[in-house]
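## retry 2 of 3
previous attempt timed out at serialization; input unchanged, resubmitting
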Amino acid sequence: MQNAQANEDARYAEDFARIRETQIDNVLRIIHTAIERIKMSLILPKLGDDMDHLRSVLKGGMYAPAIGLIEKLQTLDTVKVQILNHDVLKIIDYFHRNYQIYQLFPRLVNLLSTDDKKLIVACDTVLAVAERHLWRTAKSEISMERQLHVMYHEREELRSRTAYYHKKLKSRYAVLRWKQAVKFLILEKLETDLANRKWKNSVRIQNEIEKRSRILRDVHKNTVQKQKDLEEELEKAKVEYEHLITSITVNEKEARAEKNKLLIQLENILQKFDTNIGEKIRENLELEDQYKAAKKELDIFMVSYRKEEAIYNKIVVKYEQEEQRKQQQRILLFMMNRAARQIQKYWLKWRRDQRLKARRQNKKKRK
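## retry succeeded, writing output
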């Protein structure tokens, strides 16, 4: 009896779960259809902006009647026409029934205004939230409550930690203030020491300036005396330079005369070279003519030589082939004779063994 009641309860629970799944699917389908129709309604006013693109996409397909409806909608003055006009409602109803049309125009979806995009995102969020809440079960709710309980304890622990660290920071802040006061006193002392050092350094710098100015005056006197000495040396160098220039001009005139002599000798040598090279060129041309004649005779000889060589090669090849064939025949004959001798030898040995075996058997039978 208890088993029958348990089976009936399980069957009832299974039927209820099946009915619940069907109801959830129907609700989600209705919400999804409503969101898709909202998207279609948002994109519907922009379909008539580019009729050529609309015709190229919808012509010849299952949504071809939409072209005529959009053209009709453009002819109607929606400002003057009443909102509940039958034609307008019929056109809107067609696009709501065939809301898949907006998927063929992704560019128009991207060109929607920011508010329209926010509306689409809000609708998708509503669908996701509804789907999550409708499909949740008691088990998932219990696990979520457990997670929330764990999160609550973690938050309380975090609060206690923050209070502890806040107190610690206050104590550290007091220590830091005390340290800052000590640093301020140290800085005041360092500033007084620095002022004293600056005064001492300024006095020392003034003394060094007076000392260096005296040294500079002495250096200036020495440089003036050295400048006079250098001017005298410069006058002497100018006189020596003029003497050197005169001697260089004399040497240059002698070098030019020597150069002219060498140029005359070079011209004579070039003339001799030209005459000699002309004779060599004539000899070279004669030798080239002789070479061409000899080459022509060699070509004629090579033609006859190649013919003779071809005949010779043909004869030699035939002779070698014939010798090779004879050699192969001799080798084959030798192999056959050797095989016959071996076979005869083994046959005689086998016959002799058979005779000896027969004799032993006869002796055994006699015994």
